[in-house]
Specification:
By secondary structure, this protein is α+β, with helices and mostly antiparallel strands. The chain is built from three helices and four strands, in the order αββααββ. 4% of the residues are buried.
């Protein structure tokens, strides 16, 4: 996300809201002309500051909290968020945007542990495992299961 360097809070807020609207219109089918109704949009983290004594500091991306007026727009936005990655209509910077629901501290802890477990299991066989229903499970190649031939056995 390209940073807005303005010192005016309203300009930064409008910039962040425009980015959310652009992402919504890109990833939600049929919403290319529809503008989502956003109730609030604000940053939860300040821009990253660099420490001159340590050289270039670690960059932190701004975390935005966005509240939609309509629940169906929120649902569509979160469900289609997986379409952001590798979307050629978006810049490389916007392809790295992550969207998630607002989680409690305990939920974030559980998710962090699941992601760490997923990363460890996928280290040897990349892409073999995924997270489903709060568990790290092997990816299935077909919805019908494995080994089902469909013919009766006598």
């Amino acid at each position: 996300m390209s940073p807005c360097n303005s010192t005016d809070a309203e300009v930064r807020k409008r910039h962040d809201t425009d980015i959310v609207i652009s992402l919504f219109q890109t990833i939600v089918k049929g919403a290319s002309t529809e503008v989502p109704m956003i109730k609030t949009c604000y940053r939860l983290k300040q821009k990253a500051r660099t420490d001159p004594t340590e050289g270039e500091g670690e960059k932190q991306n701004p975390v935005l909290k966005v509240t939609f007026v309509k629940t169906n727009e929120l649902r569509a936005f979160v469900q289609n968020s997986r379409l952001i990655k590798d979307n050629k209509a978006l810049s490389k910077e916007l392809q790295q945007v992550m969207i998630s629901r607002d989680l409690t501290f305990k939920q974030r802890e559980v998710n962090r542990k699941l992601r760490n477990e997923l990363e460890a299991k996928n280290k040897d066989d990349p892409g073999k495992y995924t997270i489903r229903n709060g568990k790290v499970v092997p990816k299935s190649n077909s919805a019908s299961g494995t080994g089902a031939s469909g013919s009766p056995s006598d």
